[in-house]
Structure formats: structure tokens, C-alpha cells
Amino acid sequence: MKGCGLCWTEAELELLDGDPALVPDAVVWQFAWEVEDHFAPEEYAPAWRRIGHRVVGLLDGDPDSRLTMGLSWAGFAEWPEAERAALRAQVTDVVLRAAADEERWRDLSELVQAAAQLDQSLTPWLRLVETLPGEVVEHLAEEWSDVHSANSTFGTWLRWTGPTPHEEVEEWLSTR
User: Fold this and answer.
1) pTM summary value
2) What gap in Å lies between CA 136 and CA 37, rounded to an integer?
């Protein structure tokens, strides 16, 4: 794989171009956090298609909505349906397992935001939230009630517009 020689060693780029199971977690994390213009454009989407499931595995252990930000640059919407469905199922499973464990509720906002990167919209994921037990929904509603405060980190890595992530959450909150 071709990439920025300042950010990546040849060995790391070779790993990213090979068997996803052999790529160390630290390299997967770095790839997911890196902006797309640090890689050859024709190689970025195929790399995501190879290691996307590994990124979601990292997301499960350390929720960070920036980890999935590269999916839009990787053209996720144009991936083959089977690949999109598999990644969506994996992300949904991560969100549902966190929702089922009260100790992980603190991760839910970040996980839902990471999931929303798949669609460049929170709306489908807010529909999933509505299917969760009432106390989980209330937890998220309370957490998101201050999305415009200076202390809120909501939406830091959510870059879409029309409607914006903040507008989507405000609409959702208004129906509660």
C-alpha cells in the first residue's frame, strides 16, 4: 500500500496491504484515525474494506467515533451490499451489547456516533435507540440534552450537514 512516508513505515504499509489478521491493533487504530489523503486514493477504500471489521473490534473495546470517520472517505455507501451489511451488523452488535450492560452506558453516545458514520446520519441509529429499554433511552436523552453547551463533545467527528448531527439529536429530543 502506498502512504505518507512521514506517518507510516514501509513495514506498516505492507501490513495494511496484507492479511487483516496480521495487522497489529495499534496500526489498525492509526489507520482509522488517519485522514484519507495520507494514502494513495485508489488504495484507501480497499484498505478499509479489508480492515473495517478490525476497526469495529477496536471500537468495541475503546469507543471513539473518530475511528469510523474514514468510512465516508472510503465510499462506504458504494461498497457491495454484503460487505456493508456485515459491517453494519457488527456495529449494531457492539451498540446493543453496550446497551445491555449498564456499566457500558457511558460508552453509548460515542458508539451511536461511531455507528452513524456508516450512514452519515444519526436517524437510523436513533431508531435503534428507540427500541432499547426505557432507562437506556433516558440515559442517552439526558446525555444529549446539552449538545450545544461548551462542555459537550457530542459530534466532534461527525461532519455531515443537511441535517447536521446536532439538528438530528435536537429533533429526536423534541419528540421525547
Assistant:
1) 0.92
2) 38
